[in-house]
User: Which sequence fits this backbone?
């Protein structure tokens, strides 16, 4: 900066531009004053405002409390923009889900209503969209309101101004202000306690005000690059190809093994599956005990219970078995048969509510005098076991869900239900009869 | 000197004078009148004080949550090296000074439970110990036994009284000595203090409120109670500051900037409470597990649905939309309106938390899932509003005022606090 003209060489007076890195060619842009503390900056801003200046701005490394009223700046409209964004997000989030749920993608889940009972599930999405659009409005609204992005500013030509991001507090009055007078304005800033006042000039080179070529190039290139996947997808949607897929890891796509139910030339039946060898049984699949696994006793339905579990433990009809049976019954059987076994569970209740007639079997019904009813009570235990395993009429089989031991526990509990609901006073222990009378 | 700091206005009145005794007298009068009326009304219910005690739990939760919320503000102020709070901190300290009286007032429902009263908490009843009837409750009874529960009540009280008392005592001490090391000391204590505070607040909510429905589960319940309580706490702070200023104290020190910050906390906790309350509802609604949805089944159908809607609209939607604006918080009458409004709705929120349990046990004798919620006739489920609900609440508000008034004495500003200047000069960005 030795070639910079200076009015007061070596001094530190108001016109000293030497040594602070501010070129003086070009049109005068502003007078830049530096203050020592944020407090002095606020005081100076108040004085400048009171002197009637409008085109001035303050610069500080961090937000300074009270600077806005000191400068006479009116409230920002940013909160309104953010509210608008958030409101739009919330409303469009609700509208999106209403549209999908009731028009484009009516998804029937167990006959549950589509709208508006499903609203609670929609709140998080509406909430997230409200936040997203509020944040976008906040971010981009701030940029637009501040006329950003701006890559160039005359104040950057002042070397002192570099400290504005560290510990410098600046106030600049633009030459375009109608009250601007290079002598009076400088005096005002100095009187307000400035430790230095510099004149800042516009860069005479107009190219400096343009976006640097490399940034422009980067934006164009990255935008173009971002379009490539979209272009490939668009092409694929509108063209046909007989070429095979591109396999990046062929050894993963084609593994040297046979999958089940595929063809294989090695064997005469051309199947990759090799079934059980005739005359053999896999370990644990023998199921030799006819009573335990199938409810049979010498080819007929058993009327009793199995003698032992497959592991050899004796089979006992005791309270533990009944409790287990009750527990399983309440899970698997009550939807149709009801807790009391009368066949009035939730499913038949709903059928009735919908005007239907179907009713589940009453498990606890006693045989009537005319020979009807009591179907389950008269059924041998083995047949009841078989019905639980394989189903009957509209009842599905539960073999896949309930292990054999639990099925037998349910059989014992059904017997207990029948007994309990068709009991007479004689069934009650002697000592407790009086409490029922 | 920077403009960010101000010195105390020379004409400022900072001595409490008769303010405290006036508040104590007024509070004592209110408490006496309304609690006597409540006792009469409670006896007339003819339900062995059950309604009275349920209403008492509502009112007690209301006043306890206000003191708990203000203790949080004091802890937070030191924890984050806050500045603006300093001018209202003495008032917040006075509000936490009510803890001993609040905990004594709570004995009205704690002592009967210890002495074997069964109708308030189901877990205290003999039925609760029936493992067949209450398979999911049985394993909780070690925690929910009357004596252990009462011991915890005392422990929570000791923690709150101790923390609040320590911060208030040290603050007063600084008025005398002006030692800035006291502030540093309180900053050190505020960290662990905040952790202890958090656990204690949640545990209190679990024990006093959530255990009214002992078979129900919600881990966020304590946080929800705390959020709702802080809405009321900041509302109460705003009203007390306003009242102090109307009586000529702190008129220059507390400005619209401070009201604005109190209003911001009211706004944020209005939303925070709603956020946690919705999180709880959303997960249980979506999960659709009977032992969780039962709690909402009793609140979202029948008469209670109108209370739920009133809370949704009145406690969240309306204040949320209006408190969002800068001006509703800076214009003091508007802020005062919302403070009163939110206090009323905080009471309704506590009522909504507690009272459905009353009807539950009355109608079905016992909170058993198979008997009550799944097959019960929802249309018969009434709010069963009673005058004693209101009078107990007002009486306990009087108790709270007595507790606060006893601590409104001496300096109403921490005059030697190193952050006082910054608090006096506080301005919103």
Assistant:
């Amino acid at each position: 900066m030795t070639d910079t003209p200076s009015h007061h060489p070596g001094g530190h007076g108001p016109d000293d531009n030497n040594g602070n890195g501010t070129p003086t060619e070009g049109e005068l842009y502003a007078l830049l004053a530096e203050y020592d503390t944020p407090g002095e900056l606020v005081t100076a801003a108040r004085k400048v405002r009171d002197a009637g200046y409008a085109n001035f701005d303050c610069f500080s490394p961090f937000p300074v409390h009270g600077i806005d009223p000191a400068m006479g700046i009116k409230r920002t409209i940013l909160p309104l923009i953010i509210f608008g964004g958030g409101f739009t997000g919330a409303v469009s989030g609700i509208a999106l889900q209403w549209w999908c749920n009731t028009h484009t993608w009516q998804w029937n889940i167990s006959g549950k209503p589509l709208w508006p009972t499903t609203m609670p599930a929609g709140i998080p999405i509406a909430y997230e969209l409200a936040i997203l659009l509020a944040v976008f409005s906040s971010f981009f609204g701030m940029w637009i309101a501040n006329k950003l992005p701006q890559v160039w500013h005359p104040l950057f030509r002042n070397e002192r101004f570099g400290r504005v991001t560290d510990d410098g507090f600046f106030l600049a009055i633009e030459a375009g202000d109608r009250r601007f007078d290079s002598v009076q304005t400088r005096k005002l800033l100095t009187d307000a306690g400035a430790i230095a006042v510099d004149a800042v000039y516009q860069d005479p080179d107009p190219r400096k005000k343009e976006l640097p070529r490399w940034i422009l190039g980067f934006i164009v290139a990255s935008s173009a690059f971002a379009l490539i996947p979209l272009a490939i997808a668009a092409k694929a949607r509108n063209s046909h190809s007989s070429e095979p897929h591109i396999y990046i890891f062929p050894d993963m796509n084609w593994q040297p093994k046979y999958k089940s139910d595929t063809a294989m030339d090695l064997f005469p039946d051309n199947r990759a599956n090799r079934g059980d060898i005739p005359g053999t049984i896999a370990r644990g699949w023998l199921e030799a005990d006819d009573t335990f696994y199938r409810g049979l006793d010498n080819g007929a339905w058993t009327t009793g219970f199995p003698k032992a579990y497959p592991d050899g433990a004796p089979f006992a009809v005791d309270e533990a078995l009944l409790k287990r049976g009750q527990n399983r019954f309440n899970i698997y059987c009550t939807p149709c048969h009801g807790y009391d076994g009368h066949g009035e569970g939730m499913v038949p209740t709903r059928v009735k509510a919908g005007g239907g007639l179907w009713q589940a079997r009453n498990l606890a019904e006693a045989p009537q005098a005319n020979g009807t009813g009591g179907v389950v009570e008269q059924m041998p235990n083995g047949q009841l076991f078989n019905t639980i395993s394989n189903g009957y009429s509209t009842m599905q089989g539960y073999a896949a869900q309930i292990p054999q031991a639990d099925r037998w526990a349910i059989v014992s509990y059904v017997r207990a239900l029948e007994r309990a609901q068709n009991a007479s006073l004689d069934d009650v222990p002697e000592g407790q009869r009086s409490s029922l009378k | 000197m920077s403009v960010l700091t101000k010195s105390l206005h020379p004409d400022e009145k900072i001595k409490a004078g008769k303010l405290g005794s006036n508040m104590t007298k007024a509070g004592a009068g209110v408490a006496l009148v309304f609690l006597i009326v409540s006792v009469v009304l409670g006896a007339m219910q003819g339900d062995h004080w059950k309604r009275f005690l349920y209403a008492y739990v509502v009112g007690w939760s209301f006043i306890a949550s206000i003191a708990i919320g203000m203790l949080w503000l004091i802890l937070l102020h030191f924890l984050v090296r806050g500045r603006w709070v300093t001018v209202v901190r003495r008032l917040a300290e006075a509000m936490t000074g009510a803890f001993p009286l609040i905990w004594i007032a709570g004995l009205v429902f704690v002592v009967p439970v210890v002495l074997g009263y069964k109708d308030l908490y189901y877990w205290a009843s003999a039925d609760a110990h029936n493992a067949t009837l209450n398979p999911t409750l049985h394993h909780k009874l070690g925690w929910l036994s009357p004596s252990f529960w009462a011991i915890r009540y005392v422990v929570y009280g000791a923690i709150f009284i101790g923390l609040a008392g320590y911060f208030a005592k040290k603050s007063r001490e600084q008025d005398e000595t002006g030692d800035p090391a006291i502030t540093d000391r309180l900053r050190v204590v505020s960290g662990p203090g905040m952790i202890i505070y958090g656990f204690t607040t949640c545990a209190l909510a679990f024990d006093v409120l959530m255990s009214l429905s002992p078979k129900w589960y919600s881990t966020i319940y304590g946080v929800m109670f705390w959020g709702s309580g802080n809405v009321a706490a900041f509302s109460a702070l705003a009203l007390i500051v306003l009242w102090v200023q109307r009586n000529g104290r702190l008129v220059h020190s507390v400005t619209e900037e401070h009201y604005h910050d109190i209003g911001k906390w009211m706004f944020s906790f209005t939303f925070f409470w709603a956020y946690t309350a919705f999180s709880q509802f959303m997960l249980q609604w979506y999960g659709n597990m009977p032992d969780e949805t039962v709690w909402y089944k009793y609140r979202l159908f029948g008469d209670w649905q109108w209370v739920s809607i009133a809370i949704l609209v009145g406690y969240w939607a309306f204040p949320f939309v209006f408190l969002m604006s800068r001006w509703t918080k800076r214009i003091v009458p508007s802020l005062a309106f919302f403070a009163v409004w939110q206090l009323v709705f905080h009471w309704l929120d506590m009522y909504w938390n507690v009272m459905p349990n009353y009807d539950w046990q009355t109608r079905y004798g016992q909170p058993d899932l198979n008997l009550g919620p799944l097959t019960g006739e929802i249309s018969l489920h009434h709010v069963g509003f009673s005058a004693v609900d209101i009078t107990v609440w007002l009486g306990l508000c009087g108790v709270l005022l007595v507790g606060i008034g006893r601590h409104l004495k001496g300096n109403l500003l921490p005059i030697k606090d190193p952050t006082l200047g910054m608090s006096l000069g506080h301005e919103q960005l």
In short: Chain B touches chain A at residues 1-4, 278, 281-282, 285-286, 324, 326, 425-429 (CB under 8 Å). Chain B has a mean pLDDT of 90. The two ends of chain B are 19 Å apart (CA to CA). Residues 208 and 343 of chain B are 20 Å apart (CA to CA).
